[in-house]
TrEMBL record, chain B:
GO terms for molecular function: ER retention sequence binding. PROSITE patterns: ER_LUMEN_RECEPTOR_1 (PS00951), ER_LUMEN_RECEPTOR_2 (PS00952). This is ER lumen protein-retaining receptor. Keywords: Endoplasmic reticulum, ER-Golgi transport, Membrane, Protein transport, Receptor, Transmembrane, Transmembrane helix, Transport. Belongs to the ERD2 family. It is found in: Endoplasmic reticulum membrane. The chain crosses the membrane at residues 58-77, 98-115, 121-140, 152-170, 182-202. One of its GO terms (biological process) is protein transport.
């Protein structure tokens, strides 16, 4: 979901 | 991964290398705020809690370890290295940075994506990073002369988040069209805090003069 996929950023 | 984000990460890494170079080569941390460095250790530790639990890519894991390791090394140098710690002037590093922790944490408890430990702390790290540069900027305003390496360090540290804003624009319009308000607003606030520094930095670069921030 939203939060998860931005956690591929540093 | 897109070019803006890669450029952002490389600029961020470069800013840390410039700082380590300055401290290691000159054996001095004059003009550097220990408080900003300590806030960055907290930012990285709370941002990368999933370092061992979630594998995104080798690049992602290596960069997380590098950021955590270098930020610890910088704080160690400034606190414990027998020569460098003498050059730290705590009288000019006056910003009450612990006052930043609670508001950021409370805001993360109120405004987050999911109410889980990982996500609240990840959100906290975004809010904290947005304001982590404040002690450093306050110190620069009070210090008479800013050496080139310190100026370059702050410039690249600010530029990296600006590149991330471009990365978010790219991701939104060209990839998944999903709004991510928390990183976006935090990143914009963070970049905006550098605005006047960028102005004076570029002005001094154009006029080939020493960088000086108005008090």
């Amino acid at each position: 979901d939203n939060a998860k996929d931005l956690k591929d950023e540093l | 991964m897109n070019l803006f984000r890669l450029a952002g990460d490389m600029t961020h890494l470069f800013s840390i290398i410039v700082l380590l170079l300055k401290i290691h080569a000159t054996k001095s941390c004059s003009g550097i705020s220990l408080k900003t460095q300590e806030l960055y250790v907290i930012v990285f530790l709370t941002r990368y809690l999933d370092l061992f639990t979630r594998f995104v890519s080798l690049y992602n894991t290596v960069m997380k370890i590098v950021f955590i390791g270098t930020s610890f090394a910088i704080v160690w140098y400034m606190r414990y290295h027998k020569v460098v710690k003498q050059t730290y002037n705590k009288d000019e590093d006056t910003f009450k940075h612990y006052f930043l922790l609670l508001p950021c944490f409370v805001l993360a408890l109120l405004l987050h994506n999911e109410f889980t430990t990982m996500d609240v702390l990840w959100t906290f790290s975004l809010y904290l990073e947005a304001v982590a540069i404040l002690p450093q900027l306050v110190l620069l305003q009070q210090s008479r002369n800013i050496d080139n390496l310190t100026g370059n360090y702050v410039f690249f540290l600010g530029a990296y988040r600006g590149l991330y804003v471009l990365n978010w624009i790219y991701r939104y319009f060209l990839q998944d069209h999903r709004a991510r308000w928390i990183p976006w607003i935090s990143g914009l606030v963070q970049t905006a805090l550098y605005a006047d520094f960028f102005y004076y930095y570029i002005l001094s670069w154009k006029k080939h003069e020493k960088l000086k921030l108005p008090a």
